[in-house]
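Milestone M4 deliverable, item 7.
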Amino acid sequence: MPQYTLLIYSPGDRTPSAAEMAAEMPAWNAFTESLQEAGVMRGGDALHPGETATTVRVRDGETQFTDGPFAETKEILGGYYLIEVPDLDTALKHAARVPNVTYGSVEVRPVVDFSQAPGSAQAAQATA
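Output delivered:
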């Protein structure tokens, strides 16, 4: 069955207060529990703010480390869910229920299944 990531973004120009975060936590907990109860959740976590990131690049054989995210954006990646559902439409229905979707956004991306790629051991076994 296909897997999808739900990448959760929030506006980068506004940090919610502690009271706002506490008020929203029950909705996040309920959403997470609904994915678990449906048997579709395969993983997920919140991420620390972008300013805690370190970006790594190798250019001309030299490793470079830069504090912060790769690029400045208007929205900040705050976390993700990994779900396993029959199709994109089902993944989109779950994404539409993410608690911050009314003021942020959720990017839904299919996960590549390399086990089915030509030359993989699993693909070779399937054709044998």
